[in-house]
Specification:
Elements lengths: L1 E5 H9 L4 H12 L4 E4 L2 E6 L4 E6 L5 E9 L8 H15 L3 H9 L3 E6 L4
Parallel strand pairs: 1-5
Antiparallel strand pairs: 1-6, 2-3, 3-4, 4-5
Length: 119
């Protein structure tokens, strides 16, 4: 199992002072069912002592992708249109082969933050 964050998420997490170690711990919690399953490979996880929310895509369960971050105070939740978009994106991420993932890492569109998290 591998965990990634997108380039956009990486910048947002830095501005919210969220460290990669917290993101890895959050994935471990999500795998234990401690995240909101929004269906279609889309999960919402509370971070940063419940101040922020992360949208994680993990259709298929092999790779997890942090894609969107928002502050609870700024936005109550994502809307149905946004959720549909994240579900579609989850399908695309699930279809990525290792060669394409490596190319995205090399181009800095993805950052791998942990590998072989506890199941």
């Amino acid at each position: 199992m591998r965990v990634f964050k997108t380039k956009w998420f990486s910048k947002a997490a830095k501005s919210h002072a969220i460290k990669d170690s917290e993101l890895c711990q959050a994935i471990e919690a999500a795998m234990q069912g401690k995240a909101d399953d929004l269906g279609g490979g889309v999960y919402k996880k509370r971070l940063n002592q419940n101040r922020d929310r992360a949208i994680i895509l993990a259709k298929g369960g092999e790779n997890w992708f942090y894609t969107f971050l928002y502050a609870k105070q700024d936005m109550a939740n994502i809307d149905s249109r946004e959720l549909a978009g994240f579900r579609e994106l989850a399908k695309h991420y699930a279809a990525l082969i290792d060669k394409k993932i490596m190319a995205l890492i090399k181009s800095k569109e993805l950052v791998e933050i942990c590998h072989d998290c506890k199941k």
